[in-house]
Amino acid sequence: MTLDTSPELGVDALWPLCLALVRARREGAAVSGMQGALRWQDEGGGWALGRGWNAQASELFALLKPLLDRRAGSQPWVVGQLGQSLDGCIATRSGDANFINGQEVLTHLHRLRALSDAVLIGAATAAIDNPQLTTRHVAGENPVRVLLDPDLRLPAGLRVFTDERAPTLLACDASRQAQAVQHVGSRQVLAVPGLLDAQGGVQLRPLLDALAQRGLRVLFVEGGGVTVSRFVQQGCMDRLHLSIAPLVIGGGRPGLSLPGGTALRDCPRPPGRVYRFGADILWDLDLRGPCP
Questions:
Q1: Cys staple from 239: which of 79, 113, 146, 217, with CB 3.0 to 4.6 Å?
Q2: Is residue 84 within 8 Å of residue 245, measured between CB atoms?
């Protein structure tokens, strides 16, 4: 890859380099051809920008760097996202969420898909939105699409099961494998031993292990609120991108739902940074970082 390193390189020059890093990670190959535009820092520093980038590219790189720093064969790593109103709702009572956030955040979601090995949503979100989960708004390969459906309630006619735009996996407990295969075919079933505990609760660590065995180590949890909350509650999420729109829904479906502390001093305050996406504000929250 040949890169013009003249001053004021922008997002259009940065994005192909991001895709090259992800491609190398997926293939377990060495990264080459960066021409000084990016450099690897030892001692846990990860990737850093070279000289000549403009402010917009530098800000985008800072937001995406945690994904770009993942290496081939590393431990599973999870980034989640929720788009919500000012009053903490991710949809109306009827489930209408199209679209809480603006085009800039939508583009960001497609970038996260392109940089991740797999994108995961819960059954309720899949049933309501019937999404494609592709990277059609940005350059980049479609990730593997994972639908968490332990109760096998999703219809087989959903677009992700039929459009053949990207590999799709229906994640269910191993005890229901035969039923799932009959529903969507063996090629689209990820049967996970221990996904359900004795009380029927969903356990996410076995799911992450099963995905990692398939080489899917960087996971983007795109929704919905119950699924993202479950990942946070079980300590299975490393980063959360929380996009807040200048909108008041009132009495809609809540976003994060976590056990509350009895006092503010007991409530977690994860370190984070704020980014502007048009009229929306995105919080990049480091769920592994030390709380102040």
A1: 79
A2: yes
As given in the structure block, the two tokens for residue 237 are 């999420």
Altogether, the residues listed in the chain come to a count of 292
Q: Which residues of the chain have pLDDT under 70?
A: 1-7, 33, 291-292
pTM, to two decimals: 0.94
160: phi then psi, degrees, rounded to nearest 5? -65, -25
Buried b or exposed e, range 61-98, using 16+ CB within 10 angstroms: bebbebbbbbeeeeebbbbbbbbbbeebbbbeeebebe
Query: What pLDDT was estimated at residue 234?
Result: 96
Position 27: which residue type? E
Per-residue pLDDT, 31: 83
Q: Please tell me the predicted confidence (pLDDT) of residue 1.
A: 33
Share of the chain above pLDDT 90, in %: 78
